[in-house]
Amino acid sequence: MRLHRFTALYRSRIFAIFLAGMGATVCIFIMAQGAQIAPSYLGIMAPFGATMVILFALPKSPLAQPKNILGGHLLTTAIGLITLYYWEVTPISIAISVGLGVSLMMLTNTLHPPAGANPILVLSLNVSWDFLFTPVLSGCLLIVLFGWFYHNWISRIGYPLRLKP
């Protein structure tokens, strides 16, 4: 009896792991298709890949909630763009923009660890303000919408978290 329960639990866990991997795969595949239209999408794939880990493996985490995904990515990208506009790209400007991003995400309660890479990406690629909208905003919206669909209709976990009044 115990072995059967353990085996069923193990199979259930393996299935959940497989589903999470498939969800991340499909979401990134859809986004990668956008790179054929707007090549800047490829630049954001690394932070968005890390977002996939949080959204599909830890959907109940506060870090996986829409406010954090959208707010964290938009805020840190904007900080990178402001830094790019006013400063030269140097190790100190990169470091300050990442540190400021972390602080402001904490201050605004939009902490999303993958977004910490955005200022580095913005400064490294020397992008324009359009980058904030495509691929960052459009990518975040796609991720949140896909996460909502996936977690409500496929994994049946429910997303986003329902906050108690």
List key phrases describing it.
165 residues; membrane; 76% helix; mainly alpha; 0% strand
Structure described in brief:
This protein is mainly alpha-helical. Helix content is 76%, strand content 0%.
List the helices and strands and how they pair.
Blueprint: H1 2-37, H2 40-57, H3 66-86, H4 91-107, H5 118-125, H6 130-154
Helix pairs in contact: 1-2, 1-6, 2-6, 3-4, 3-5, 3-6, 4-5
Explain this structure to me?
The chain is mainly α. The protein has helices at residues 2-37, 40-57, 66-86, 91-107, 118-125, 130-154. The longest helix has 36 residues, at 2-37. It has one domain (2-154). It comes from Marinomonas primoryensis. The chain crosses the membrane at residues 12-32, 38-58, 70-87, 93-111, 131-150. Keywords: Membrane, Transmembrane, Transmembrane helix. Residues 13-160 form the HPP transmembrane region domain.
